């Protein structure tokens, strides 16, 4: 029978920690100069506009939740407004996730907590610059920290644990609303202690009380958001956003169920999941799991289920949408591998294979992160061109027709406000037959308001990027989807500058700059 002595198991654990720690150190050092791009740059610009006293959702058309602005505001006011500040915040999130995993696993296996935390951090590293400080990463950190509070048995009275758990869930729900479903995990401390033959002893009152206390504290951040929106006169606009624009955004670039499934359960994560579940199901009968072990296991299973549901609900298959699922899977697998290390035969062999496979992935993740680049040539070039056209004097007199291809990031660099609050070209150049009647009415109102601004107070400069976010077309073909805007460009503007930027991800670089003609009259 296959069996490895306990002394060699200790060597394997120590070697694993050394490899993972080295990979994390390499990642931290190599990524210190990562720029602020993609979604993080867009949210940073929205926060900048909010500080200029523009009303969210009413004057700024954005589909991110208010908690995203709170996070960015916190980063800028405590760490600064540089790309390095956002990089530090990203590392703080990873540190919080590692701490929460260690706290959850500490009584069962400190090794498992360290292994899972560093493995997940390197998975995030593998996803690269574009996923820096993503909202799902913040949500994952909050849910894991809340979960660690939930299982603090030494905290008395018990309602304190549930209250802290609910508060973290509420904070995460202001960033990603589906996080509110995680409140059901408050039942774990009661369900995990029930044996199969004593199901009639389920403490219904305790479960209901736990969920109610958690829901009560979860409502505190949500109520705070409602008060803030009300103070800015943005409640109706916010309601339109969550009931019309966000569902429409979800449909644009959405994927089929099987496509989403294949991207969530990749070959590597499916292998880890199968190994971990197999070890869990074949646990030796004489080693009856403790109540504490059952609690952690059940919580992590619930976390994986939530993470998978959250990923599927977002229907986009973006890398960061997998973060909650992969985080809870990482700790679940690390604990199951660690439990099986103390067994013998096939179980111990499978555990060693699982740990070694995770180490191999971690090294590959690190190598991938070292080769990840995001050229700032587009933003640099656009900054030079805008400075040549007036620089600071363009504030309030410039309009981007773009989403994440660098125009908004450039405006933030120069601290320029747009002529309108339109940030998403997907809503202005909507493909036909994609929206419901209500959504089409909302889009028509947005287009009408945009055209009214261009007619009554035409901006001096319009910057147009070639790609329509999020699913195309490219090569400026989006103009064909909105002839009324194309006519205004033809009548009132001349294309002064056209750039083609090479070597820049994603594969739709470049921009055009249109300058208002002297003959263009306000209407």
The gist of it:
With 523 residues, the chain is mainly alpha-helical.
Q: Could you characterize the architecture of this molecule?
A:
This protein is mainly alpha-helical and 523 residues long. It has two domains: 6-370, no CATH class; 377-516, no CATH class. The protein contains 20 helices and four strands. It has helices at residues 6-30, 38-51, 66-78, 83-105, 110-127, 135-150, 159-173, 188-191, 204-231, 235-251, 257-264, 267-281, 291-314, 323-341, 346-370, 377-388, 407-414, 425-428, 437-456, 483-492; strands spanning 398-401, 461-464, 493-499, 511-516. It has a four-stranded mixed sheet with strand order 1-2-4-3. The longest helix is centred in the middle third of the chain and has 28 residues, at 204-231. The model has no long low-confidence stretch (mean pLDDT 90).
What is this structure's SSE topology?
Layout: H1 6-30, H2 38-51, H3 66-78, H4 83-105, H5 110-127, H6 135-150, H7 159-173, H8 188-191, H9 204-231, H10 235-251, H11 257-264, H12 267-281, H13 291-314, H14 323-341, H15 346-370, H16 377-388, E1 398-401, H17 407-414, H18 425-428, H19 437-456, E2 461-464, H20 483-492, E3 493-499, E4 511-516
Helix pairs in contact: 1-5, 1-15, 2-3, 2-17, 4-5, 4-6, 5-14, 5-15, 6-7, 6-14, 7-9, 10-19, 12-14, 12-15, 13-14, 14-15, 16-17
């Amino acid at each position: 029978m296959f069996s490895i002595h306990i002394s060699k198991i200790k060597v394997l654990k120590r070697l694993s920690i050394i490899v993972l720690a080295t990979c994390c150190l390499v990642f931290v050092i190599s990524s210190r100069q990562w720029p602020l791009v993609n979604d993080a740059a867009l949210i940073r610009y929205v926060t900048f506009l909010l500080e200029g006293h523009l009303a969210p959702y009413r004057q700024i058309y954005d589909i991110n939740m208010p908690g995203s602005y709170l996070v960015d505001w916190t980063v800028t006011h405590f760490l600064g407004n540089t790309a390095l500040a956002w990089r530090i915040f990203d590392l703080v999130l990873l540190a919080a996730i590692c701490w929460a995993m260690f706290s959850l696993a500490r009584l069962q296996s400190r090794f498992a907590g360290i292994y899972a935390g560093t493995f997940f951090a390197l998975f995030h590293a593998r996803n690269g610059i574009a996923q820096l400080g993503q909202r799902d990463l913040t949500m994952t950190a909050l849910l894991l920290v809340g979960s660690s509070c939930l299982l603090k048995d030494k905290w008395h009275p018990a309602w304190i644990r549930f209250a802290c758990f609910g508060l973290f869930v509420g904070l995460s729900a202001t960033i990603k609303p589906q996080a509110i479903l995680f409140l059901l995990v408050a039942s774990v401390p009661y369900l995990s202690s029930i044996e199969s033959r004593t199901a009639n002893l389920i403490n219904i009152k305790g479960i209901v009380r736990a969920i109610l206390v958690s829901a009560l504290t979860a409502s505190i951040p949500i109520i705070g958001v409602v008060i803030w929106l009300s103070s800015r006169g943005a409640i109706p606009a916010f309601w339109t956003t969550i009931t019309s624009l966000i569902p429409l955004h979800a449909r644009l670039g959405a994927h089929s169920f099987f496509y989403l499934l294949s991207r969530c359960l990749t070959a590597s994560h499916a292998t880890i999941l199968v190994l971990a579940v197999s070890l869990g199901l074949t646990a030796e009968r004489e080693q009856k799991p403790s109540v504490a072990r059952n609690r952690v296991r059940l919580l992590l299973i619930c976390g994986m289920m939530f993470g998978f549901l959250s990923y599927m609900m977002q229907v986009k298959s973006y890398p960061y949408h997998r973060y909650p699922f992969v985080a809870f899977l990482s700790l679940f697998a690390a604990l199951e591998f660690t439990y099986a290390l103390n067994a013998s035969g096939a179980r111990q062999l499978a555990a060693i294979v699982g740990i070694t496979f995770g180490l191999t992935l971690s090294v590959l993740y690190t190598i991938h992160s070292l080769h990840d680049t995001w050229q700032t040539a587009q933003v640099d070039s656009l900054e030079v061109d805008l400075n040549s056209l007036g620089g600071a004097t363009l504030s309030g007199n410039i309009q981007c027709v773009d989403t994440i291809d660098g125009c908004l990031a450039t405006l933030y660099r120069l601290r320029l406000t747009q002529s309108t609050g339109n940030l998403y070209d997907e809503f202005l150049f909507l493909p036909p037959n994609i929206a419901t009647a209500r959504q089409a009415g909302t889009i028509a109102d947005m287009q009408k308001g945009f055209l009214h601004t261009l007619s009554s107070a035409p901006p001096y400069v319009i910057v147009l990027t070639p790609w329509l976010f999020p699913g195309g077309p490219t090569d400026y073909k989006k103009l064909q989807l909105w002839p009324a805007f194309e006519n205004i460009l033809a009548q009132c503007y001349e294309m002064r500058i056209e750039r083609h930027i090479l070597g820049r991800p994603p594969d739709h670089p470049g921009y055009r700059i249109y300058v208002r003609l002297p003959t263009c009259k306000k209407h």
